[in-house]
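Need the bound structure for guanosine-5'-diphosphate, inputs here:
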Amino acid sequence: MSQPAPAATAEAAAAAEALAEDLAVRLEAGERRALARAITLVESTRPDHRAAAEALMRRLYGKHDQAIRVGLSGTPGVGKSTFIESFGMMLVKAGLKVAVLAVDPSSARTGGSILGDKTRMEYLTREKNAFIRPSPSSAALGGVARRTREAIILCEAAGFDVILVETVGVGQSETMVADMTDIFLLLMAPAGGDELQGVKRGIMEICDMILVNKADGDLKPAAERTRADYAGALRLLRKRPQDPKDFPKAIAVSALEDRGLETVWEEIRALDGWRREGGIRDNRRREQAVTWMRAEIEGRLAELFRSAPAVAELLPKLEAQVGGGDTPPDTAAAEALAAFRKALG
Ligand code: GDP
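Answer from helper R.:
Posting the output first, comments after.
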């Protein structure tokens, strides 16, 4: 691989810095188009875009930390978009700026995108103080995570007060979203008692509030029973000594009829305020930053590995051997890594 001439490198670096500076200034002035453009930039894998995105992060990172980052998860059909629409509208009416981002594990696989689709939040989309961005399509969930973490920083620089990060009920993506937010909400549907087991223990452990949606009409009694069951399960599951004693909690809401949403916001603010005062929020964000760095290193290593010509050549052969049952996976992996090490010199 030929190295670019030093002059070209310096030129490229200067261009990345210039683009980053221009975007940073416009973002901090709250310019919407600059936000959309900056997110497109951090989603791109083109090397010059990556350079500009990194320069942008260096300018903005750690400068704006007023926002509350809220993760929201739930299975398809539970009412996430209805909730985001109603909850988001309530916040906008209260004078807050709301950004909605999405981590869609299926978009990572198929390239399609359902979550964060603007047509799902018809009214919120039209608000000038709301910003909705669908999940990026990417070959890997790690790429989606990186984009979303950076997009959060960009939204904060643009003056957003609440950053909602939506995902679907798949373990890995939920943990990922909990790892980039301050508060994690799980949206559930009313159910019979035996369905409680459907919630994985790991998810109960990371959520701060379970919202039982559709607490309206005929479903109201079931929603209330489900809420009580979850409240009991959460109490049994664990104590978080650093949180107020009544957290995590379960609340019944109706996204459709706007019921319980103010309570949810009050509870979010109470918990966030408590954690800010006690330094818990900042600690958590610092830990998340370290996790982010580790994920970044792993992602880049994997990329480096796959793009090494020696590895690219060897890998299909090894895969055929392992697939054919001739070579143990462990042996093949060792061989691939040996080729990589040799290529590194
Ligand atoms: P998502 O797939 O999680 O985004 O779910 P949607 O927001 O698209 O909602 C799925 C269905 O549930 C739609 O038909 C909604 O109208 C309905 N729904 C959402 N929230 C409520 C609610 O609070 N009460 C009732 N009765 N239905 C709701």
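Comments: The chain has 14 helices and seven strands. The beta strands are 68-74, 98-103, 130-132, 162-168, 183-188, 209-212, 249-252.
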